[in-house]
Amino acid sequence: QVQLVESGGGLVQPGGSLRLSCAASESMASIYAMGWYRQAPGKQRELVAFIFSSGSTNYPDSVKGRFTISRDNANNTVYLQMNNLKPEDTAVYYCNAKRRKEIGLDDYWGQGTQVTVSS
Question: What three-state secondary structure class fits 54?
Fold first, then answer.
């Protein structure tokens, strides 16, 4: 069982920045990929950013160029730097980790952190 603890959400004005952190309870070496999803009221959960064990990253067009995901293997932590935030970025952000099993992947989730972009 991988425990994920998120921090860094809050209220920010449009155009502002926030950095989210997600600390995993075990070594990144055992995790295939880590990243973030978000869910706004009345909408489906959507991918925000992912970083794989190879170091490659994945972003949807909606955040490309504004959000950057990075990781600190020594501290088992993944960061999401969010710049030029827009009101449509308002959502609960969930950290996700995918760990390999014999066949397929296991999914683990954090408790979520609220990000509100408003003037």
Answer: coil
Tell me the Cα Rg of the chain. Answer: 14
What number of CA atoms fall less than 13 Å from residue 78's CA on the CB side?
Answer: 32
Residue 25 makes CB contacts below 8 A (sequence gap 6+) with 1, 2, 3, 4, 76
Q: Beta partners for 11?
A: 116
On the question of pLDDT at 45 being above 90, the answer is yes
Report which DSSP code applies to 62: T
User: What's the pLDDT at 28?
Assistant: 81
Tokens 């501290």 sit on residue? 75
Which residues have a Cβ under 8 Å from the Cβ of 24 and sit 6 or more positions away?
2, 3, 4, 31, 34, 76, 77, 78, 97
Given this model, what pLDDT does residue 27 score? 85
> Whole-angstrom Cα distance, residue 55 to residue 95?
17
